Amino acid sequence: MTLSVTPERLDELVMLLSHWLTKKSATKSELQSLVGKLSCVSKCVRQSRLFLARILAMLRTVKRNHYHVKLSKEFFRDIHWWLRFIHVYNGVSITPTSVWSSPDAVFATNACLSGCGGLTSHQFFHIKFFGEVKDKFPSIHHLEALAILLAARLWGPQWRGLRLLVYCDNAAVVSSLNSGRMQDPILAACLRELWFLAASYEFELRAVHLSSAANRLADLLSRRHLNPKFQEEFQAKTDHLNMQVVTVPSSYFHVADCL
Q1: 190: exposed, middle or buried (C-beta count within 10 Å: 0-12, 13-18, 19+)?
Q2: Domain that includes residue 21, residue range
Q3: Which residues contact 214 (CB under 8 A, 6 or more apart)?
Q4: Which residues contact 257 (CB under 8 A, 6 or more apart)?
Q5: Which of 25, 137, 207, 249 has the maximum number of C-beta atoms within 10 A of its C-beta?
Q6: d(CA 205, CA 100)
Q7: Using CA atoms, how far apart are residues 247 and 250, in angstroms rounded to an integer?
Q8: One-character DSSP codes across 92-153
């Protein structure tokens, strides 16, 4: 019940991808060869297919096999993603046994302009943003995506092989996460890092849009530092659940520039 890529094939891909980082352009034939090599991994790791899609789109723009196309920044970001992933991938993926229909777990996140929070059924986190975070993530949809990424970094190892739903009150983030399409480079960087974690831990993630009122617990966490009443209300609503608070390491706020 597993799908495998041999260690030899993975080593070959590392060498091939490293070579592609030195190129400025490529022919259609070269791109076809690259797609063929990466397809063997994408068949095993569903989350990686997004990072093959743009290479395929570039391939379709080249009419003849010997024609050259200039390699874009987005192309190199995908190559960097593949290199990072292959270094942590053990070559073995579990074969899905059923169609994705209902989640194994649910979590919720929320952000305001000065902080964010998130919770699962048994743990929660809250963080007040420091100046560097607000400089790097200037808009609310960036911060909403960052909150989801922080949750995945905290709980990703516990989610291995699971199907998850995340509740979020930002429609743009929900749409981008579910479709894999985004124009905003900061949002793209956050979600590409999120998909890296999903591929590494083999969990599936879908987002559901809720209003702030419906996503009340996560909303209270995001504003916890603004007024003691928010902390008191959260505690009153969750006291019977015996939830544990978890600390967010400062390193979790870093999103690699290459993504």
Answers
A1: buried
A2: 2-94
A3: 167, 169
A4: 189
A5: 137
A6: 10
A7: 9
A8: EEEPP-S-S-S-SEEEEEEEETTEEEEE-SSEEEEEEPPHHHHHHS-SHHHHHHHHHHHHHH
47 Rama class: left (phi>0) / alpha (psi -120 to 50) / beta: alpha
d(CA 139, CA 146): 11
CA distance 205 to 177: 8
Rounded Cα gap, residues 175 and 46, in angstroms: 19
Which CATH number covers residue 51?
Answer: 3.30.70
pLDDT digits (tens, 9 = 90+) for 71-98: 998 899 889 989 988 888 866 665 555 5
Same domain, 126 and 62: no
Beta bridge partners of 107: 166
pTM: 0.80
Q: Based on the domain organization, do 211 and 129 belong to the same domain?
A: yes
